[in-house]
Structure formats: structure tokens, C-alpha cells
Design a protein that fits this description.
mainly alpha
Length: about 120
């Protein structure tokens, strides 16, 4: 049942993104940024936590989950580091994901053959 919940919630997040791509003139970069900001805002006000508990990775893997993770890191760092935690908490919490993205992008760049369009 956990797989079904994760699939449905993750799929719904992707459907919202696809509708935004198809029905608006927003660029994909703006949509991605909007999802991250929405994850931060929903995480900050406590609305993303119940969704993450319900759908597990279905809510945490999409890009909105990255924003949620950053807001949680900021909240935790704010408690331990004070005002400095606002600046450092999001990156501390998401450093592993950012590092993995950079590493796998490097591997793909080394393997792939570049060409002009």
C-alpha cells in the first residue's frame, strides 16, 4: 500500500507540473523554482510534513521535497545555531543530494558525446 500512496502523490505532483507546462507560458525553470519555493513555504508552515508522512518518498523525491528538506534543515539549524542557521541549515540538510547531483552530472558529461544542435 505504501507504494501505491507514493506513486499517487508523486504522480499528482508531476501531473501538476505537466499541466503548468502545457497550459501556461511558464518556462520549465520557473516551474521548477516554483515547486522548490512551494516546498519551502509548505514545509515552513507545517503543511508538507503530513504529506511526507502519508506518502513517504512520493512526496520527498520530487523537487518540492527538496524545498521541504531545506525548510526542515533551516528550522533545525535555527534552533541550534541561531540566526546563522537560517543561512546554513538548508545547505547542511541538502548537501548530500546536491553533491550527488553534481557527481552524477559530471559522470554523464564524461560519458556522453557532446554535439551541437
Amino acid at each position: 500500500m505504501d507504494y501505491v500512496k507514493a506513486f499517487l502523490v508523486g504522480g499528482l505532483i508531476c501531473v501538476i507540473g505537466q499541466i503548468l507546462i502545457d497550459k501556461t507560458k511558464l518556462t520549465p525553470a520557473r516551474i521548477l523554482t516554483g515547486f522548490v519555493v512551494a516546498g519551502v513555504i509548505l514545509g515552513a508552515v507545517g503543511l508538507y510534513q503530513p504529506l511526507a508522512e502519508f506518502a513517504n518518498e512520493g512526496a520527498c523525491v520530487p523537487i518540492s521535497g527538496f524545498g521541504y528538506m531545506m525548510s526542515e534543515g533551516m528550522k533545525d539549524a535555527l534552533k541550534t545555531d541561531g540566526a546563522l542557521g537560517i543561512l546554513t541549515g538548508g545547505l547542511k540538510c541538502s548537501a548530500a543530494g546536491i553533491t550527488a547531483a553534481i557527481f552524477f552530472s559530471l559522470i554523464a558529461a564524461l560519458i556522453a558525446k557532446s554535439h551541437e544542435k
